[in-house]
Specification:
- By secondary structure, the chain is α/β, with parallel strands linked by helices.
- It folds into two domains: about 120 residues, Response regulator (Rossmann fold); about 100 residues, Up-down Bundle (Four Helix Bundle (Hemerythrin (Met), subunit A)), CATH 1.20.120.
- About 55% of the residues lie in helices and about 10% in strands.
- Strands 2-1-3-4-5 form a five-stranded parallel sheet, with helices on both faces.
- It is found in: Cell membrane.
- This is Response regulator.
């Protein structure tokens, strides 16, 4: 399957790197940071499948797919990736022309099985539910095990440390935005934190950011300081989890 090539389209750099690390062992890939860039790349290169984020600046995923199909740029499978995850959302994305849908936070296993399913027609895929092996309240170590099937431990370490840097920066920005009363921007930062922490199994940050984001969407600001402290506490817990790379040592 290494002769197949995937186009990853996502405006968030860490999301792109996680996807690249997951699929890089099995497939060639290119990455685009928005829909406009993706269209140009599809016009000038040959790909076998597209992973398309929905919420992007400049040109969102649905509008990008519409242009791809109307201009007949390519007829390869295009997979929607979004934080929207109920059956109604899935049905809507499929009705707009996407060939499949993967919910964020994306599980590496689901990502690979979906790609494989569309590149090898007739091959089934498993559906998993419930708590995974190695999952605790703070961290889902099973994600490391999944990533190890497709990449080296050094690359995996780099992804988790990149996420720590990003989480520290975003948490600081959220604190500043709260002081300035810019609550819409807080929601955008929390959305990034929620998606990336969920994909990497950093549950202590995922749970804090998901609950906080929900309150922001509902304009529920009465417990803002408590929500900020929960997020900052979750960040400190994550810092301890990957401190000195102890959690990765057993896999080296």
């Amino acid at each position: 399957m290494k002769n197949k090539k995937v186009l990853i389209v996502d405006d968030n750099a860490l999301n792109r790197r996680v996807f690249e690390n997951v699929i890089g062992h099995n497939y060639f890939f290119d990455s685009a940071s928005d829909g406009l860039e993706a269209i140009e790349m599809l016009k000038n290169n040959t790909y076998d499948i597209v992973l398309m984020d929905i919420q992007m600046p400049k040109l969102d995923g649905i509008s990008c797919l519409k242009i791809i199909r109307e201009e007949e740029i390519t007829d390869i499978p295009v997979i929607a990736i979004s934080a929207y995850s109920n059956q109604g959302d899935r049905d809507y994305f499929l009705s707009t022309g996407f060939d499949d849908f993967i919910a964020k936070p994306v599980k590496p296993k689901d990502l690979l099985e979906t790609i494989h399913f569309h590149l090898q027609p007739g091959v089934g895929r498993a559906i998993t539910t419930g708590m995974e092996a190695g999952e605790t309240d703070d961290f889902n170590e099973a994600v490391i095990l999944q990533l190890l099937k497709y990449h080296t431990i050094d690359n995996i370490k780099a992804v988790y440390h990149d996420f720590l840097d990003e989480a520290e920066n975003l948490t600081q920005e959220i604190r500043i935005l709260a002081d300035l009363g810019k609550f819409d921007e807080i929601g955008e930062k929390l959305h990034i934190l929620k998606g990336n922490s969920g994909t990497l199994g950093v549950l202590v940050i995922y749970n804090a950011s998901a609950g906080f984001e929900k309150k922001i969407k509902q304009s529920n600001l009465k417990d803002m300081e408590e929500d900020l402290e929960n997020l900052e506490s979750g960040l400190k817990t994550y810092q301890k989890i990957i401190e000195n790379d102890k959690i990765f040592a057993k896999y080296e």
